[in-house]
Amino acid sequence: MGHFHHVGMSMGMSSGDDNSTMAPSHHHPTSSASHSHGHMMTMMPMTFYFGFKNVELLFSGLVINTAGEMAGAFVAVFLLAMFYEGLKIAREGLLRKSQVSIRYNSMPVPGPNGTILMETHKTVGQQMLSFPHLLQTVLHIIQVVISYFLMLIFMTYNGYLCIAVAAGAGMGYFLFSWKKAVVVDITEHCH
Amino acid sequence: MHFIFSDEVVLLFDFWSVHSPAGVALSVLVVLLLAVLYEGIKVGKARLLHQALTSLSISTSQQLIEETDQNSSSSDSPQVSRTRLRWFLCHFSQSLLHVAQVVIGYFMMLAVMSYNTWIFFGVVLGSGVGYYLAYPLLSMT
């Protein structure tokens, strides 16, 4: 019987196995096998739920047990999602700025002798060791890490945290893209 | 954890649990339409932005022409506030579309996480069909 529970626990989701009928909607595992074996301490929920008891958040020390902690986690996730949107737009702006500067640098056109089109190859992208490219790379790494964190937070299937991710993304897009769109509007008319 | 072909799947919500091939087929259809909608929203956001920029650029250039003609002072004319309101509404609707895009994107990720191969095919096919239908609309003006 312990083996059966172990198999059921390790699958953790709807499976093709006829024997185990897991109820994935249960957030708190009631079987005693989790304490005896200790292989999987908590089951991952597979459907959305609203609750704030025993919610693990990303790291082993971060467990939410009270409403106050859930409120704090909501705010933190909201700010993280807003920061992610801001980072995306800041990277776009930085890229455009560094590329525009390179384009202007290569514009110097032909001298009085009639020599034509000197440095057209400079318009393509950035140099690899230039500071803008290194900065873009560092920001890209941060962006990838944050995006995976947000995915993992959404994967907790906790309704409050998922709403925090979605609302933070919306608010971040609203605030940061507003500024970007105004800037884009102005610069695109100067050409 | 690995991909399996299964007749049972529980997707996203407690009530969405199916145990029959017909149920799974219906779920695959729903997920497919969700993926098509996701691609459509991406294109819709870009088009909204493009429309806003073109329409508001016309109105701001008209304002500039009027202001230079009239030699008006620094106070905002009603034209400017109307433009700002239109821009605000446009940007707000884009933000709502962005929230919808984020949520649907995460739903699709969670659907694939069910590790049901039929659902995965539905997501991939839906993304392909959605891209095929929506992206030509991007270059239309």
Automatic annotation (TrEMBL), chain A:
Q: How does it sit in the membrane?
A: Multi-pass membrane protein
Taken from the record, one Pfam family name reads: Ctr
Q: Where is the composition biased (Low complexity)?
A: 15-35
Localization, per the record, is: Apical cell membrane; Basolateral cell membrane; Early endosome membrane; Late endosome membrane
Main subcellular location of this protein, as a coarse class:
membrane
Q: Which GO terms describe its biological process?
A: angiogenesis; copper ion import; establishment of localization in cell; intracellular copper ion homeostasis; plasma membrane copper ion transport; protein complex oligomerization; vascular endothelial growth factor receptor-2 signaling pathway
- Keyword terms: Cell membrane, Copper, Copper transport, Disulfide bond, Endosome, Ion transport, Membrane, Oxidation, Phosphoprotein, Transmembrane, Transmembrane helix, Transport
Q: Where are the transmembrane segments?
A: 70-87, 131-151, 157-176
GO molecular function list: copper ion binding; copper ion transmembrane transporter activity; identical protein binding; silver ion transmembrane transporter activity; xenobiotic transmembrane transporter activity
- Signal peptide positions on this chain: none
Q: Does the keyword Transport apply?
A: yes
Reaction(s) this enzyme catalyzes, per UniProt: Ag(+)(out) = Ag(+)(in); Cu(+)(out) = Cu(+)(in)
Q: Which residues form a coiled coil?
A: none
Region of interest: Disordered? 15-36
A GO cellular-component term linked to this record: apical plasma membrane
Question: Which family does the UniProt entry place this protein in?
Answer: Belongs to the copper transporter (Ctr) (TC 1.A.56) family. SLC31A subfamily.
**Described purpose of this protein according to its UniProt entry:** Mobilizes copper(1+) out of the endosomal compartment, making copper(1+) available for export out of the cells.
Q: What is this protein called?
A: Copper transport protein
Record the organism.
Delphinapterus leucas (Beluga whale)
UniProtKB/TrEMBL annotation, chain B:
Q: Which family does it belong to?
A: Belongs to the copper transporter (Ctr) (TC 1.A.56) family. SLC31A subfamily.
Q: Specify whether Transmembrane is a keyword of the entry.
A: yes
Does the record's keyword annotation contain Transmembrane helix? Answer: yes
- One example GO MF annotation: copper ion transmembrane transporter activity
Q: What transmembrane ranges does the database entry give?
A: 20-38, 87-112, 118-138
What keywords is this UniProt entry annotated with?
Copper, Copper transport, Ion transport, Membrane, Transmembrane, Transmembrane helix, Transport
* One Gene Ontology cellular component: late endosome membrane
Q: What is this protein called?
A: Copper transport protein
- Among the Pfam families in the record, one is Ctr
Q: Write down the superkingdom of origin.
A: Eukaryota
